[in-house]
């Protein structure tokens, strides 16, 4: 399904039946009260586009360039030539956006990069921010 689509029905009819279940004794006697009210409600599409988050990789003076290239290839599915180019952009400018994802996926990418960097004793920093 594509974002923004949903239930296409224009209106849903709800038969109001006095108090959400069976009718009370009172309601059976007072038939002119709203036991047969017909309520039409406009339905809203129920899917929403997820907020997207930029994943940023930050420069530092110690992480080897080849390690950053490897991170970009392994966790962000970027080909080698482009990974070298992005790594050099981070090296020169201080940071770069390396991907844009829904919240949970961005969080996972950040955690994977931080854990892999820590295990390899590099100070590489990866963060996310709302787009
Ligand atoms: N500045 C690092 C160096 O000269 C290379 C580097 C690039 C580090 C990108 C982090 O996100 C980074 N070895």
- The class by helix and strand makeup works out as alpha+beta
Question: How many DSSP H or I helices?
Answer: 4
The helix content, as a percent range, equals 25-40%
Oligomeric state of the chains in view: single chain
Q: Spans with pLDDT under 50 lasting ≥5 residues?
A: 1-33
Bound molecule types: L-tyrosinamide
The topology string of helices and strands comes to: EHEEHHEHE
Integer average pLDDT: 80
Number of E-type strands: 5
Tell me the distance between the termini.
23 Å
Cα-atom radius of gyration: 28 Å
The biggest sheet, with number of strands, parallel, antiparallel or mixed sense and barrel status, is: 3 strands, antiparallel
The fraction of residues assigned to DSSP E strands is 15-25%
Largest sheet: spatial strand order: 4-3-5
Please tell me what the overall shape is: elongated
Overview features:
alpha+beta, three-stranded antiparallel beta sheet, single chain, 131 residues, binds L-tyrosinamide, two-stranded antiparallel sheet
Question: What is the gist of this entry?
Answer:
The chain has helices spanning 25-29, 65-76, 80-93, 103-119; strands at residues 11-15, 38-42, 52-58, 95-102, 125-130.
């Amino acid at each position: 399904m594509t974002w923004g689509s949903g239930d296409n029905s224009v209106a849903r009819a709800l038969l109001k039946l006095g108090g959400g279940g069976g009718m009370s004794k009172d309601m059976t006697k007072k038939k002119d009260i709203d036991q047969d009210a017909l309520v039409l409600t406009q339905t809203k599409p129920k899917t929403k586009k997820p907020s997207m988050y930029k994943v940023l990789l930050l420069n530092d003076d110690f992480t080897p360039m080849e390690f950053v290239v490897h991170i970009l290839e392994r966790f962000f599915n970027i080909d080698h030539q482009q990974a070298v180019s992005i790594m050099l952009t981070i090296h020169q400018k201080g940071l770069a956006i390396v991907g844009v994802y829904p919240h949970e996926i961005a969080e996972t990418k950040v955690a994977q990069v931080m854990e892999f960097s820590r295990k390899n004793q590099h100070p590489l920093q990866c963060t996310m921010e709302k787009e």
